[in-house]
Design a protein that fits this description.
The protein is mostly helical. It is 62% helix and 3% strand. The chain has 3 domains: 66 residues; 148 residues, no CATH class; 102 residues.
Amino acid sequence: MRRRAIEVVGCGLALGLNCLLHRAAEAQVVVPASYGATGITRLIDANAGYMDSLGDYLVKQSFDRIRDTPTEKMPKSLLWVSTYFERKELNRAYRLKTNPPFLDKEEHRQQQTKRRIEKNTDLLLKGDVTDELNWLLRELAGLSSAYQLLPGPDSLADSSVDRKLESGDAHHLRLTDGGRRGGELLVFRADTADVQDTHWPRALRRKEFDDVRGRFERARDRAVRRIRAEGSPGREAEEDLMKATDQLCDAFNETYQPKQQANSYREFSVYSASKLFLQSLAASVYRLIETNDARAFDGSYRFEGDSAVDLLHHLTRYGLQFAPPEPGDEGTYRKTFFALRAVYDDLSAPNYSLGGALR
């Protein structure tokens, strides 16, 4: 087929050249005398050169077909396929390097957290250490030697590793059950475990909020009493509590108008803090109604120990974790962090010790 096509092309070129020769003859092309030829002879010479080049090309093609036998083509084909997939694999490797899977990202994040806790503690002390405390809590619960946190003859409690908490430290630690139904956590002080305790911000302690604030507290206390007694607040108590929450938010929005927020940075800060508090309060009310967990109201979550190991035992027993601190609690959080890290360092060591002595 290919040879036939070349023959057809050659015939076409020959016909074209014959036409050119005929036209050249009619036009009586003048060629310089130095060439010693007419225009027709020069065209014939050009046609001959073209046919000679075409013949060389066809000869070369025939030799290439003879040389490219299946035995010669197979290695080239295999090389092409191998190169194609190697390029795809290289492309995939670079993509994974720049955008790794979620689990790889999470593993890297955990390694960075561990590095900050073990070697770069100074970076942690510049901000909130709640996440690091919860990381230590999870790591300690997962260690194979975590049985030493439990009461028993081999417990780390009352050892040199177990740091004592000062009186009042538990009040500055805020705990939570970790649930997020309704968008918010149940948060309470470690020493009281009172989920209905409300620390009102300064703006909401103003006189004009006394009525709506008191209405909310009465509705909340009524709902809590019903949960303690009957396991559920009942529809009427639920509606009263939600209505009191809405009235509190409406009163705040009416008092703090947008113009007042822009008066000064101080006014804006007061407004922002109170706004966030109300949003958290509204979500907590919904969470309170949805859970109806009696342990959140009967004092089961109250911490009564006096050391870091006691605190770990309490948190792991009830599945609790640390909640973010309120203003003024940051120092206790940092101190608790160092206490838990001391226990972590002792239990995670290759030859961990009990009371500071190697076993």
